[in-house]
Specification:
The complex is a heterodimer of chains A (288) and B (166). By secondary structure, chain A is of the alpha+beta class. Chain A contains eleven helices and 14 strands. In chain A, the strands form four sheets. Chain A has a five-stranded antiparallel sheet. Chain A has a four-stranded antiparallel sheet with strand order 11-12-13-14, sandwiched between helices. Chain B has two domains: 76 residues, Roll (Ubiquitin-like (UB roll)); 79 residues, DNA polymerase, domain 1. Helices cover 34% and strands 15% of the residues of chain B. Chain B contains six helices and five strands. Chain B has a five-stranded mixed sheet with strand order 2-1-5-3-4, sandwiched between helices. In chain B, helix 3 crosses helix 6. The radius of gyration of chain B is 15 Å and the shape is elongated. The model of chain B has no long low-confidence stretch (mean pLDDT 93). The chains are: A alpha+beta (288), B alpha+beta (166). At the A-B interface, helix 2 and helix 6 of A face strand 4 of B. The structure holds FE2/S2 (inorganic) cluster (2 copies).
């Protein structure tokens, strides 16, 4: 690892000041499970490392029935233990469970997972389906960025130098809605996700689709929404023929590079499977 | 430039000047001289470097030494020794869950943490818990047996367990 100057701001304002001062030469350290690896590989060689873990009020999970708010320092372990998320945002819990072994969950943060912007980030498809947004703070400015606009390319986000992601906001899920995240791992030491699919389905009382959102991970330069596939289901009843069309449309929207044929095939398989599972969840809810 | 850090390792306090780029793993092994914690991949993939940081299992190769300032670390040396081994250490020997032994310290740290939190895990739960600890030799079967054996005989980890003696 290249040497760097280590900084420990105590407040968001202090962190933003340092990030502004040092611009592109600075990197934010949260859990470090991605960044420290990148630094060892010399893919990242920051001159200034700004550890934000000493900022006291960034580690929280709150829900006020309108928004779920997750502070930037919340670890995957904390999320995995949250019964509130399990009960109200099970699609997000599916994603959290897909993340690494315990040692990684204990350190890694969901905000860091987003900022690292790996095309295969497991939380991204669910957050896309949930229409989440992230809050950022920079000198004299706050931004609310829809997650759909956050990723700009492989390992690239729309964050500007001097800007700190402080919170992830997830709007509450309407009633009669079910969601699922399904994924297939590469069988390697770290089981990176090869294809990840999140679907969120809202049905009306007649079982017609009021709203459908489909998030795809690891099959394009960034995590994406399959919006054309979503449109096919709008105001339609979900049935097998239509579902396979939707799966094919999602394949069209994906652009996998390596193992393209297999990944494409799996997109359609998982999209269909996830939609069925989501519908099953809504229906069993309606019955209860 | 070096930073002065103070950390507790296995109950003992150390004050050390470290370069910020040194990982906790390197600090434990090279500065403090406790070489039970192993460096396998050095990339957060194999779990050989697992220690407990403020009671949580982490890969010490993914933590900077400076981040451990004013924190508490437990390494394999803190669990037991040749004279007073941890029941898990005994069970690993008894079951032949050790071949080259390189994964063993990390494996035992993770298993200890599991048993302290979940005294009677299922086989599935043991396998899930150690999924971040790779073993190239044993094929895991004997490791899982050893952990389950301890769970059965301890019925809940040692009474004077890791979590209670700290
Ligand atoms: S040495 Fe740390 S995970 Fe392999
Ligand atoms: S005993 Fe050799 S790696 Fe596990």
């Amino acid at each position: 690892m290249k040497n760097f100057e280590y900084l420990e701001p105590r407040t968001v304002a202090e962190a933003v000041f340092l990030l502004t001062e040092y611009g592109d030469e600075a990197k934010v350290l949260a859990g470090g499970t991605d960044l420290i690896v990148q630094m060892k590989l010399k893919k990242q060689t920051p001159k200034y490392l700004v550890n934000i873990k000493k900022i006291s009020d960034l580690d929280y999970i709150r829900y006020d029935n309108k928004f779920l708010r997750i502070g930037a320092l919340t670890t995957f372990s904390a999320l995995a233990q949250s019964t509130m998320i399990q009960e109200n945002f099970s699609i997000l819990m599916d994603s959290v469970r897909a993340v690494g072994p315990l040692q990684i969950r204990n350190r890694g943060t969901i905000a860091g997972n987003l900022c690292h912007a790996s095309p295969s980030a497991d939380t991204a498809p669910s957050l896309l389906a949930l229409d989440a947004r992230v809050k950022t703070v920079s000198l004299g400015e706050e931004r609310m960025i829809p997650i759909k606009e956050f990723f700009k390319g492989p390992f690239a986000t729309c964050l500007k130098a001097g800007e700190l992601l402080t919170e992830i906001l997830v709007p509450s899920i309407p009633s009669n809605t079910g969601g699922t995240y399904l994924w297939l791992p590469k069988k390697t030491a770290v089981d990176e996700t090869l294809v990840g699919v999140a679907t969120l389905v809202t049905l009306d009382v007649n079982g017609v689709c009021d709203d459908v959102k489909i998030g795809l991970g690891s099959v394009a330069p960034t995590p994406i929404r399959a919006e054309k596939a979503e449109k096919l289901l709008h105001k339609k009843k979900i049935e097998d023929g239509l579902l396979s069309e939707v799966g094919e449309m999602a394949v069209d929207e994906a652009a996998p590079r390596s193992r393209a044929e297999y990944r494409a095939k799996m997109v359609s398989v998982l999209v269909v499977r996830a939609l069925k599972e989501s519908v099953r969840k809504v229906v069993s809810h309606m019955r209860n | 430039m070096k930073c002065l850090i103070r950390l507790k390792v296995n109950g003992e306090t150390y004050e050390i000047a470290v370069e910020p780029r040194k990982t906790l793993l390197d600090v434990i092994r090279n500065e403090i001289g406790l070489t039970g914690t192993k460096k396998g991949c050095n990339m957060g993939e194999c779990g050989a470097c697992t220690v407990l940081l403020d009671g949580k299992a982490v890969c010490s190769c993914l933590v900077l030494g400076v981040e451990a300032d004013r924190r508490e670390v437990i390494t394999i040396e803190g669990l037991g020794n040749g004279v007073h081994p941890d029941p898990l250490q005994e069970a690993f020997v008894k079951h032949g869950a050790i071949q080259c032994g390189f994964c063993t310290p990390g494996m035992i740290m993770t298993a200890r943490k599991l048993l302290d939190e979940n005294p009677s895990p299922s086989e599935e739960e043991v396998r899930e818990a150690i999924c971040g600890n790779l073993c190239r030799c044993t094929g895991y079967v004997k490791i899982v047996e050893a952990v389950l054996d301890v769970a059965r005989s301890e019925k809940g980890g040692r009474d004077a367990g890791l979590l209670s003696h700290r």
